[in-house]
Amino acid sequence: MSLTLLGPLRASAQQVPLFSDRVAAGFPSPAEDHIEATLSLDELCIKHPSATFLLRAGGDSMQGAIMDGDVLVVDRSVSPSTGMVVVATVSGGFTCKRLEFEGDRPVLRAANPAYPDIRIADGEELEVFGVVVAVVRTLI
Known about the structure:
By secondary structure, this protein is mainly β.
């Protein structure tokens, strides 16, 4: 999976209605009494602005979790642990995979079973750049 840095974060003042009803199919009533609050995407996705980066995903190795073209919200202040999706460098190359461990050895696992696991060998360097805390996907 290739990654493209999208640039620095800017503060957003855009607030949109957050409906209290959950939707299984269709759209909730736009009546005022169903609005729980207003919310910005910044409030929803970004907890640590100075440690957060936006990256655009490319490729299909994380298909099922992350799609080609999705925007990844990556927080460098979150400590990575087993099962988290991370952006990492392995021997100098960036990748986005799920972090797992086999014993005490880290393994980077693709969501798409067509891709092999990346096992970190002796002498190989793994650096976790950050944890993917949100994925933004446009549908149209």
